Amino acid sequence: MRRLAISVVLGTVIGLLGMSAMGAEPAVKDKDAAGQTVKRLRVGTFDSRAVALAYYRKFCRSPEFVARLKKLKEDRDRAKAAGDNEKAQKLEAEGRAMQEHSHGQVFGSAPVDEIVAKIKDQLPEIAKQAGVDLIVSKWSLTYRSPDAELVDVTEPLAKLFQPDEQTLKMIRNDLPKHQPLSAEELKKHAD
């Protein structure tokens, strides 16, 4: 999963370099002390936890998810009733893995690539409105030039999942107060 996130970031950077070679200009130009034009890269960043929270709060209430979870539980119960403990354990492990994956995204900094893929067609408009050249999870940003400008696009991305007011309040007020949990901390909470 981490490899996919790195590939996405590298692909985006390579694409921007290609745009630069073709004469495409970053969104902002400034003048340096000598009056020379300096191109500033504007990077849209987002808190992946907020996007995951907005998605899961809606998705987990959706008929699609409720039916999927119900089927998983029914299949597990049938396997137990039939004495097929191996299958029952496999289905329980699948349920735990789903939960651990979503918790890693909402409470940690696990990549949300499969969630963002659901809104990929709307990303160019978000980028245009924010005036950014690319969008990346703030947890995937390991270095930035002092000349690059960061623009928070967390809320516009989260709003694409139509979160209710309570979820928006959590995104605005609660998440920024806390750093993502580490893998070890997430594991402790899962046990």
What is the secondary structure topology, with strand pairs?
Elements: H1 2-21, E1 28-31, E2 37-40, E3 42-46, H2 48-59, H3 63-81, H4 85-107, H5 113-116, H6 123-130, E4 134-137, E5 149-152, H7 154-159, H8 165-174, H9 183-190
Parallel strand pairs: 3-4, 3-5
Antiparallel strand pairs: 1-2
Features:
5 strands; disordered N terminus; single chain; two-stranded antiparallel ribbon
Protein described:
The chain has 191 residues and is mainly alpha-helical. It has one domain. Strands 4-3-5 form a three-stranded parallel beta sheet, with helices on both faces. Strand 1 and strand 2 form a beta hairpin. Helix 3 packs antiparallel against helix 4 and helix 4 crosses helix 9. The longest helix has 23 residues. The radius of gyration is 21 Å and the shape is elongated.
